[in-house]
Amino acid sequence: MAAVRSFTKEEISKHSSPHNLYLVIHGKVYDCTKFVNKHPGGEEVILEVAGQDATEPYDEVGHSEDADRLLRSYYIGDLQEQVSIPNPIATPTLLSVANIILDVRTPSQRHRNPPHGLAPFYQTLVLLC
């Protein structure tokens, strides 16, 4: 049995013409090129969603079991899941890094807020006293 091919959204979007048409339905990719001009609802219906996810329009129509079976015959692979990398909450600036390294604070600020590395030491010292 051959391995299932995985497609990105970008790859699928390149297949949006009547002569080269992919659809995604429920995460599965179908090459519907040979079916476009045979679609009972007209080829315009398929062309509107060509090269993209057609799950919602497909489900809204309520296709028959025969239509589902026919669709499965055009299956060519799966939609590749997109891994999203979260953006960092804050990106340190050069100035903020320099302030930490150089400890640019007034003496009273340094007394109230020791550097992070020393905070546990001072907390332990206060608890012991």
Automatic annotation (TrEMBL):
Subcellular locations according to the entry: Endoplasmic reticulum membrane; Microsome membrane
Main location: endoplasmic reticulum
Coiled-coil ranges (or none): none
Domain Cytochrome b5 heme-binding residues, every copy: 4-80
Keyword annotations of the record: Electron transport, Endoplasmic reticulum, Heme, Iron, Membrane, Metal-binding, Microsome, Transmembrane, Transport
Entry membrane topology: Single-pass membrane protein
SMART domains attached to this UniProt entry: Cyt-b5 (SM01117)
Keyword field contains Nuclease: no
Molecular-function GO terms, alphabetical: heme binding; metal ion binding
GO annotation, cellular component aspect: endoplasmic reticulum membrane
Pfam families for the chain: Cyt-b5
Family label: Belongs to the cytochrome b5 family.
Protein name: Cytochrome b5 heme-binding domain-containing protein
Organism, scientific name: Penicillium egyptiacum
